[in-house]
Design a protein that fits this description.
Blueprint: H1 5-10, E1 18-21, E2 25-29, E3 37-43, H2 58-74, E4 81-84, E5 100-104
Antiparallel strand pairs: 1-2, 2-3, 3-5, 4-5
This protein binds guanosine-5'-monophosphate (5GP) and zinc ion (ZN).
Amino acid sequence: MDSCLFCKIIAGQIPSDKVYEDDRCYAFRDINPQAPVHILIVPKTHVADVAECTEKDSALAGHVLKVASELAKREGLTNGFRLVTNAGADACQSVKHFHVHLLGGRKMSEKMD
Ligand code: 5GP
Ligand code: ZN
């Protein structure tokens, strides 16, 4: 998708602090981190959000979660971590390309918003 920020990052047209890449997904550090570790894990295929994922995307979505949990290990988040995916306006999704936030390195708020 030509106008999508994350598609441009995946294509290398916009620089990013890459932490992981494979044939199906790309992971990089959030430009505005909300925790000591804040990584975005993004499928290479453009899907707007998790609500747009269909049955054919389920293996890809599972792979994104698996990579997120591997990266948590790699980042040393042995005391726990949080995965977040925002979908739509009420969740304040700002980039309309499905992504999972990996947050860790501090105690998270018990309130999830
Ligand atoms: P959302 O609000 O859609 O769930 O999350 C989008 C995330 O992308 C935000 O946490 C924001 O800080 C991050 N972000 C926006 N633009 C860029 C960018 O150009 N580079 C990086 N690394 N992160 C970005
Ligand atoms: Zn995209």
